[in-house]
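BUG: 3D viewer hangs when loading the predicted structure for this chain

Environment: internal workstation, default settings.
Expected: structure renders.
Actual: progress bar stalls at 90%.

Input used:
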Amino acid sequence: MRYAAEQARLGEQDILILTDRHDQRRLRIARHGAVLLGFEVRANGVEHDLADGYRDAVEVDTRPGSRFAIMAPFAGRINDARYAFDGRAQDLQPGVAGAERASRHGFVRDADFAIAALTADERHASVTLTSSAIRPQPGYPHAIDLGVTFTLDAGGVTLEAMMRNVGASVAPCFFGWHPYFRLSASGSTNSRIAGWQLQIPAQTLIRTDANLIPLPGAAAYVALDDAPALDFREPRPIGDSILDQGYTDLAADRDGRIRTRLRDPASGLGLAVWQERGVMHAFTADTVSRDARRAVALEPMECMADAFNRADCAEAIRLLPGAERRFRCGIEVELP
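Structure tokens produced before the viewer hung:
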């Protein structure tokens, strides 16, 4: 059989392994946080791990850099950890003051997901992981069941997220993914990222303040014609650009997928991160404590950061009781 799916261990952590024997590709995923640990592919007879994930069980537990984090019920940051929804003010960090107020990336990064399905056949291998960790808590009086399905097939990797409102009230929620990618070996010099080519098919930049919170209202939106230093509509080297930036008004290809591309012209190896809607956040990892600027985070998200506080996102984040919403994204490998 072409595909295989199995359970394994990484130290004290339970992991899942999806394998494509024909194309010699392997996907490794941890149950803790439902994070992708590795995506190994072969190009020109050489094995490459395109995912700059956690290296060991300790990192899975301590999650430095939120690598491949599942971000729900919100992605990015919430300004001062406060928001208002349906006329009620909410505080996600009651009793916390000053610089310690930093609510970001949702509530499931430390959740141990359950295995709902693990299958393989001649067409694909997949695993579905579920969590009921999103339950009423300070600042979030709602209940969301979350499921994420990773599928490995001939087209690459697909991640499908499902959020179902199992509470009695309308809930604000949206999904995001926080993957880091590398196109060269982990031992390469920091400067290697400068030569990689990036393409983001966006028309508009999301302008933020010093805390990476989008500016209020229309001030958050800047046409890329007016921000040439951050314009990657055409493929070009990252160079010395420092990115921690959201992009919107994304253009889809004919098949309906929006593709953000990263390529190493030296080897010809590249990848496309695809999504069907939402925004793309690009981050050159300048501030991470591990291997700064040796990987690039390309983060597909349903909405921009601080969406809970934005009138222009209000309808997109509303989930009625009993309703569910899905978001699909993934990775395509572009071989030399």
